Amino acid sequence: MKPRDNGQAMDSVCVTKHYRTIFLSDVHLGTRGCKAEMLLDFLKLNESDTLYLVGDIVDGWRLKKHWHWPQAHNDVIQKLLRKARKGTRVIFIPGNHDEFARAYCDANFGDVELRREAIHDGADGRRYLVIHGDEFDGVVMYARWLAVLGDWAYMVVLEMNHWFNVARRRLGLPYWSVSQYLKHKVKNAVQYIAKFEESMADLAHKRGVGGIICGHIHHAEIRAVGDILYCNDGDWVESCTAMVEHPDGRMEIIDWSQVRDASLFDAYRGRARKPRDLAPAEVVAPALAATGTDGPVAPPPRTGAHGEIAPVHAARKPSAVDG
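Above: the chain's sequence. Below: its structure in token form.
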């Protein structure tokens, strides 16, 4: 079967859409499994009045062990900062993988607001608690070593998923997530997701809100749990999903791998010429220039007990990010 024309496919969807709110989480910049090109494509074609970054945007766990930061990851950071500078309200709620940023919650860096959690007022009158969700994951809270082990195993599955989809792409087949398939088939994984959703709905009840928006478990879902609307915006390492709020308050999951052919973005590591990893200073300096601030900006350097980011002053380099 003849592979599809990547150039024609990339140009087939070029209409920019505007939403009241966009919710993104679990991007895991700094890992090889991150679909940075896919997310950058989404950010270029989708605008909003408010943008929530609901945790695990940068994977500090992985960066402490191995520095991996291609240009595409830098472009995502610059694109997010540019949106904030141009008027989009950007609210960053750190997760467990970017917990280094929790020390700066209730502060603003440039035009980005850092919050431990947030209350979102929907256009239809429903109030939502916006939180990453790791605080209600017993493995993360009480057995961190097991969480780290699980993170390693998950990265192995993602590596297998990458090469599996490289082969599918060469055969002209669409992207298919191995890990998502396993989640739906393995009984314990299904039970874990159900318990997590119930715990989050119970939290919403206790907080007196009508809905909850979270991430963490890499499983996009919008469903009623009793009288609570449970919303999970998914991730950008396997399913490439975001959640959007329409002007009438309706919530919708957008699977960008269905809108755009994910196989076109999946194999940037498989190119003949491997992209050069950027050094920490090359990452931080353009971000600071974009925000016009001297405050710390993700991602963190490899040094430091808590992953803090030291300011770096340098001339801004031309960016590959448009708009």
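The longest helix spans residues 144-170.
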